[in-house]
Design goal:
Blueprint lengths: L1 H25 L7 H28 L2 H17 L17 H21 L1 H12 L6 H25 L2 H34 L17 H4 L5 H28 L4 H20 L6 H21 L5 H25 L7 H26 L5 H22 L4 H13 L1 H19 L1 H7 L4 H18 L9 H24 L3 H4 L6 H7 L9 H19 L5 H30 L3 E7 L2 E8 L8 E6 L2 E7 L17 H7 L8 E5 L16 E6 L2 H9 L10 E6 L2 H10 L6 E6 L14 H8 L2 E10 L8 H10 L3 E7 L10 E7 L2 H4 L2 H4 L2 E2 L25
Parallel strand pairs: 5-6, 5-8, 6-7, 8-9
Antiparallel strand pairs: 1-2, 2-3, 3-4, 9-11, 10-11, 10-12
Helix pairs in contact: 1-2, 1-4, 1-5, 1-6, 1-7, 2-4, 2-5, 2-9, 2-13, 3-4, 3-7, 5-7, 6-10, 9-10, 9-12, 9-13, 9-14, 10-12, 11-12, 11-23, 12-14, 14-15, 14-23, 15-18, 16-17, 16-18, 18-19, 19-22, 19-23, 22-23
């Protein structure tokens, strides 16, 4: 067993060690976007699926000796492709579609080695089963997860800070050679066992191809179609939540290996616990924990950026852990006979790949906002309910009823999502009249599915079980009807209440309602009050002397919780979009344009958000549309730096990050040039078609598509230094910072593009991270002067508070009275942090706790 244990552990360690390693290699090439890691995970999951399919095929179709020959040949081919260092030819040249390029890059760089590693778990376990019949191989599966977890934990805390990326790649390649030797050791054991079995000196495994007699696999009980469907959908739900929560964390904080590793590590811990022993997953305990975590997550979604980062990480991580424990715990309960384990693992990997594919490829092309997290939570709740009901119904004829009922309920979230997208289209194209009608449409599939399924269960299928008693369905109907009815009441009648109440003699009550904001998130409290009243009545009417009575109450609570969770998530999505007039989503994130003060002509404006962070706004009034707004007032750091250069001479401003193009207002003469760098084509389209800063610019505007750092490096290689007077780095006002733009290597590039007396203005406004010491380290490393300018504007509401750090070799410029008088002193109490480089950049020491 030692050979198999060492091979599986080493393979699992290498399999997960390479994921953050290669992700860190290519992250700066694609703008530091969270989509880089999401795309990597999709690639890894599908290659894992390919490896499991290979293991299933060769063990079912080939004789043991042929299995050995084929696998050893592939091992040799994989070793021949080492080392796994991506070449510069894979760097993107401009604004081309990144997903396909990332997938090709990964396939060419580490495709075959990763494929071979992905076959290790199921193949080695099957070989072990053949050579050691009667011994359960499931502990080896848990061992592989331990190796995977150790790889993930060791990378951000040991390998990343201790070794350069190229050294890490060579170390991993050496590990791959060791793995190949261990796999050959296992292959030799299988070869010897097959030869002994052929000579009659060892028992042949009845389940292997070519064995004499009836294959044992036919004697093993074959699971039903619904059970195998759950083998796919349970891991798909867990994978969906893993990628969605990782995506969410990277959007809100930073795209760094630790925030890749934390969710993936929790995901693996649940696999280890659930597949080690059934005692780790106690369904009632995790059902309660899931409700608590889901409520906390919905609260965090409603609060948005107001929640502290550590609390956000805790909420998201806890929810992921509990949800994955439910999915993997129920998956373990459905495990088949060991002779069917390759099919079992193949379908598990298929589910994982489908979940990642939905988040990484499908969702960005179907949804305009991040709905996959909401869908994953709702799906997890439905699956928990489904598994509970299947257990209660057992193998009786009632099991099929529960199966088809929950399958019907599973169609509610996608139906609601489709209707929500149609509503957005109609609202955008047809005006407010149609939009009022369509606003309720996401609820229609839910209402009709619930009513239809109830009728089907109650009348079409004439059975009645302890799990389908009146109180359970009464709770279902009350909560569903309350959600639907109250939603319609608030949407259609809410604004009319202050006018209707005086007509019925309730003038005082009308005065209280006057000016109140009727928002759909208020439904939560009303709905759960109705449910609480129902629960009290249910308990009061029953003696609760039997276990069955308590079970009915628990079932009702679970059903109501599922409906309430889905309803809360749908309400949260619609509430977030109430003022939105335009949505866009692609590889680089979501962009939303909001319209405010529509009834005030001089104050009417449109605002652009990337995720939850403002990226500029503009007044619609022709005169006010030329005003400088948001973070770029004349007293901001970049405004003061730009003012140091005389207007009677040509000035050149470089800007990393386009946004709405507000900085184009800095051009005061035709001789001024503003050069914008941005990697997101959707941002460029919005700035050119939805805002007029660029078209109104007095000077010359240049737009450069692609990652700013790569574009500048390419320009320097071609001998085209831009000689900026001021280079503004404005890619950090989003809470998810592209750390690769603040490294030593990046600063070298910036210095090559500014004049000798030029200034680099770095926007460091951030809710969660204190970037001042990072910039200070860079300035001191290059022996430059620096000044922190914090502008707390309280007079003009259209100018936001902002913090900029000015870095320059021109000491006299930073000593100018306009800058020196508002310069903030350095924080002497702050602990020293290491200089950021491309190999290592730690965010833990700069967290704003």
């Amino acid at each position: 067993m030692l050979a198999y244990a060492l091979t599986i552990f080493t393979g699992a360690f290498l399999l997960f060690q390479v994921q953050p390693l290669i992700g860190k290699f290519i992250l700066p090439w694609f703008g530091g976007s969270p989509g880089v890691w999401t795309t990597c995970m999709v690639f890894f999951q599908f290659l894992l699926l390919g490896g499991y399919a290979y293991a299933h095929f060769v063990t079912q179709k080939l004789k043991p000796r042929n299995q050995v020959i084929l696998h050893v040949a592939l091992l040799a081919a994989a070793v021949a492709t080492l080392p796994i260092i991506p070449g510069d030819q894979w760097k993107p040249a401009g604004g081309e579609e990144p997903v396909g390029r990332i997938l090709l890059l990964l396939a060419a760089t580490l495709g075959l080695p990763y494929f071979i590693l992905s076959t290790t778990g199921p193949l080695m376990q099957e070989w072990f089963r053949q050579t050691k019949p009667g011994v359960s191989p499931y502990r080896l599966y848990a061992l592989s997860n331990v190796g995977s977890l150790l790889a993930l934990v060791s990378y951000p805390f040991f390998f990343e800070p201790a070794f350069q990326r190229r050294h890490q790649a060579w170390m991993w390649s050496a590990g791959m050679v060791v793995f190949a030797l261990l796999a050959c050791w296992c292959a030799k054991l299988v070869w010897n066992h097959a030869r002994a079995a052929a000579a009659g000196n060892a028992p042949a495994d009845a389940g292997s191809p070519g064995a004499a007699g009836t294959p044992a696999a036919t004697e093993a009980p074959r699971p039903g179609g619904m059970t195998q469907f759950l083998w796919v959908v349970l891991p798909a739900c867990a994978s969906l939540l893993l990628v969605a929560i990782t995506n969410k964390l990277c959007q809100d904080v930073a795209v760094i290996p630790f925030l890749w590793v934390l969710p993936l590590g929790l995901y693996l811990v649940t696999f280890i616990l659930c597949f080690d022993h059934s005692r780790w997953y106690v369904r009632p305990v995790f059902a309660v924990l899931f409700i608590l975590c889901a409520v906390s997550l919905v609260w965090a979604l409603f609060q948005g950026v107001g929640v502290k980062i550590l609390l956000q990480v805790l909420i998201y991580a806890s929810t992921l852990f509990v949800a994955c424990m439910i999915c993997h715990g129920e998956l373990y309960r459905l495990k088949p006979h060991p002779k069917l384990l390759t099919r079992y693992f193949l379908l598990i990997s298929l589910g994982g790949a489908l979940g990642g594919l939905f988040v990484g490829v499908v969702a960005p092309r179907v949804f305009n906002s991040f709905l996959e997290l909401h869908i994953g939570l709702g799906l997890c709740a439905l699956l928990l309910f489904w598994c509970c009901m299947r257990d209660e119904a057992g193998e009786s004829r009632h099991a099929a009823g529960w199966d088809w009922m929950v399958l019907g309920l599973c169609t509610v979230p996608p139906a609601g999502a489709v209707m929500l997208m149609l509503y957005r289209v109609v609202k955008r194209e047809s005006g407010s009249g149609w939009s009022q009608v369509w606003e309720g449409m996401p609820w229609v599939p839910l209402a009709f599915c619930v009513i239809g399924l109830l009728a089907w269960l109650r009348w079409v299928r004439p059975f009645r079980t302890d799990e389908a008693r009146s109180w359970e369905w009464l709770g279902f109907v009350l909560v569903g009807a309350s959600l639907f009815g109250l939603d319609r009441l608030v949407v259609f009648l809410g604004p009319k209440i202050p006018n209707v109440l005086p007509k019925v003699g309730l003038t005082k009550l009308a005065g209280w309602f006057e000016g109140k904001s009727f928002r759909t998130d208020h439904l939560h409290w009303l709905v759960w009050i109705v449910f609480a009243i129902w629960l009290v009545i249910a308990i009061w009417r029953k003696t609760l002397s039997k276990k069955r009575d308590w079970h009915e109450i628990a079932c009702s609570c679970l059903v109501a919780g599922v409906v309430g969770l889905i309803a809360s998530l749908v309400i949260q999505v619609r509430e977030a979009d109430q003022s939105a007039v335009y949505w866009s989503r692609n590889f680089y994130g979501t962009l939303t344009i909001f319209e405010y003060r529509k009834d005030e002509p001089t104050a009417h404006y449109f605002l652009l958000q990337h995720g939850k962070i403002t990226h500029g706004f503009q007044f619609t009034d022709p005169d006010f549309a030329k005003w400088t707004t948001s973070y770029y007032g004349s007293n901001s750091g970049v405004g003061l730096a730009w003012a140091q250069f005389p207007t009677n001479q040509p000035r050149h401003l470089g800007v990393v990050g386009l946004g709405t193009g507000t900085l184009a207002t800095y051009a005061k003469a035709p001789t001024d040039t503003i050069r914008f760098y941005d990697i997101n084509p959707a941002v460029t389209n919005i700035a050119q078609t939805r805002f007029t800063y660029l078209s109104n610019c007095v000077g010359k505007v240049n737009l450069v598509m692609g990652d700013a750092r790569l574009s500048m490096e390419s320009e320097l290689k071609d001998g085209k230094s831009q000689k900026f007077d001021v280079l503004a780095l404005d890619a950090f006002s989003s809470d998810a910072i592209p750390a690769h733009l603040l490294t030593r290597e990046a600063m070298e590039t910036y210095l090559g593009h500014i004049k000798t007396n030029g200034v680099i203005a770095i926007h460091i406004s951030n809710r969660y991270l204190d970037l001042e010491p990072v910039v200070q380290n860079l300035a001191e490393h290059f022996k430059l002067e620096w000044a922190l300018i914090s502008d707390s504007n309280e007079n003009d509401w259209w100018i936001y508070s902002s913090s900029w750090v000015l870095v320059s070799a021109n000491k006299d410029l930073l000593a100018h009275e306009s800058i020196a008088s508002v310069k903030s002193p350095a924080n002497s109490t702050r602990s020293k942090i290491p200089l950021w480089t491309d190999d290592f950049a730690s965010l833990f020491q700069i967290l704003n706790r």
